[in-house]
# Entry
Amino acid sequence: MYDTLDVQKSLVKQLNMRFPNIEVTEVTRINSTRNKLYLAKTGANQQNYVFKLTPLHTSHIPYVEYRAMHEIHRLHGPVSRPVPMEKECVVHLNDEQFAVNGYEYIQGNTLSPTETNFHSLGVSIGHLHQVSIHMDKPSWLPEVTVSDLINEPIEAISQKCRDNGMFTTAIQQATMVAEVLHHNRNPDWIGFSHGDAHHINAIQTSRDEIVWIDLEDASWQWRGYDLATAIWGTFGRGGSANIWNELINGYTSVRSLSEEEATLIRFLIFSRHLWWLGLHANNWDRWPKPYTSEHFFQSGIELLVTIGKDVCGLKT
# Structure
């Protein structure tokens, strides 16, 4: 987690070369799993920034986050102001190349799952979707398909998890969910999606405003996926029916949901959990062992099957 002083100095120098208007004086690593995240302190304007370094060798598409934040900020959506870039920026650390983008550091707290907080969270997701409602799909924004959410994760997990019967059930359920999603790609339900809209990525400021961070999974897909992710993100963290209902109530105070679109959220919760397991399977050798143990996948698939039965009402 910690960097040597030489690495820190090298990063400060490179950031100042690539972002000459902000005068970075020091950096501190604050997270490192999928990416390296740094808090950067500055001199002249006393504004701190967060810089995200994404390894160029990963399958993740670099610079989507910057472009998404830039566009949503331009539309006055609830995101932090990105640091302007004239061109795509790359930095080098320990002989590895990273795509880099930055945004203003927002002082505040991540939300806890309560009815009041999740009503506000739903409102904020609604605003995020509403400001982009007339947006045509940008060329740089990935379009999420049924294969991305269902087929590819199943294939990745099958390489890492021994089938004990539970995985066979999960595959059967996934096939059913794929059919539902395939037949419910209504153009009115498709648009800009944060892609990772759980409450930990929502910062509540001292003025009770909600600002979204971590848009690296921004995509063009079912908008309901963001609501599904918010619900999924409370599993094991204090989620309840009342909290989830307040999320939907907050959202529909900004943007309406038809009964059919609202029903689809159940299947997108299943898809979100399956995608998340596939993400970890694809990063088996890169991420810390607690996330890539066999027990992790066994318990994750058990939860997936439970979601299929109890949330989606699937019978296998």
Notes: The chain has a mean pLDDT of 91.
